[in-house]
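Deliverable D5.2: sample structural annotation.
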Amino acid sequence: MAASGTGRAAARRDLVRDRARDLLRGLRAALPTPRRNPFALGYLALLLGTTLFTRFGDPQLVHRLQALSSTDVHNLAHHPVLALAASGLWVAGPVWTPYLWAFLLTVAPLERRVGGRRAAGVFAAGHVGATLLSQAVVLAAVAVRALPVDALGDLDIGVSYGVLASLGALAGLLPPAGRNLALGIAAVLVGEQFLDGTDLVTGIGHPAALLIGIALWRPLRRGPRRPLRRRRPAPAPLPVRV
């Protein structure tokens, strides 16, 4: 009896050790690395640089560069390519840390599943598509005098559209439970911004970016995909004695 109890205790310890080892292996696999996530980590480093420049650089120079980068109607009419590209080099606000978590939870896992090029394409599609749609709404609102003419030059920079498009696209590659959780979180974020109603641009742009990511489910599912975690190889069968 004692030997049997000792054997069961040893088996339980082995099971706990194996599960802890699997958990640590899964956590290591989920952490971004330069090899698996060159796009996400490179973009985060770029945003960190511009955030530090915003905080410690010359305020007048920062203001001029951000005004030139803004995707407002005026800039889109005169230099659209420059405005669309440069507006994604800044974070909206003085704090970089929320974007670290946003990229780690959306862009990085999407990149691990579909590769850097397609993840960058999703990000760019959300950034460009949601920007153009939201600024078209601003232009229409000014035309019907629902907004003042000054709204055509309001500062519009940041990467939230690309992040939300990445979240929407990632949801389509997850199992049903994970997909529902991701879409629920996205709906709460977008709904809160929409109901707040203080910023028409993001109130239109955020749901548009999310829908752009969702619209890309089919092409992303058709292309090559990589698992988020590498499966452990099955142990070799033990030789059978005759």
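Annotation notes: The two ends are 31 Å apart (CA to CA). The chain is about 70% helix and 0% strand.
The annotation will be released with the project's public dataset once the embargo ends.
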